[in-house]
Amino acid sequence: MRWRKRPPAAAARSLERPLLLRGHLWLGDGTEYDDGCLLIGTDGVVAACGARDEVAVPDDADVVDAAWVGPGLTDEHVHLAFGDPLEMLAAGVVAVRDLGAPPADAVRWRRLTAPRVEVAGPLLTAAGGYPSRGWVRQASLRSSMTPSKRRGLSEGSSARWT
Fold first, then answer.
1. Cis peptide leading into 131, omega within 30 of 0?
2. Structure letter (DSSP) for residue 79
3. What single-letter DSSP state applies at residue 128?
4. What's the domain count of the chain?
5. Does residue 23 sit in the same domain as residue 54?
6. What pLDDT does 162 receive?
7. How does pLDDT run across 36-79, given as a tens digit for each residue?
């Protein structure tokens, strides 16, 4: 099986007008403002952030009031086979690492521009292991080794798979 290369990350989008996000602002380094705001310039880059009365807001800025404003989150252990990537994005998760994705789904999810999806590869399990049915590929040490190699492995010597 060959994995396709991931498309390059999307560049920042330009905006017609600056965008101001207002609400409880968490900067990710422990700094919080109960009544904060984050200003995104027309180039799509954060121009300013802080307490509402400390950030100069352009007159033409679009304003979005939110309960909470903070950095995008990354979830490093997800199983997208049981969830929707767009629901994760709506909750503030901008990148995920899927563990055990079926290959066809992995290729499809990696094409998304958001959230960014990294894939660890297909799920493997020992014969009779969990999960034992359905979408998992089973691996068996016994079937890939000759009897003499199995004996050597059980006696502590190194054995190579063929």
1. yes
2. -
3. T
4. 3
5. yes
6. 40
7. 999 999 988 889 999 999 999 999 999 989 888 888 788 999 88
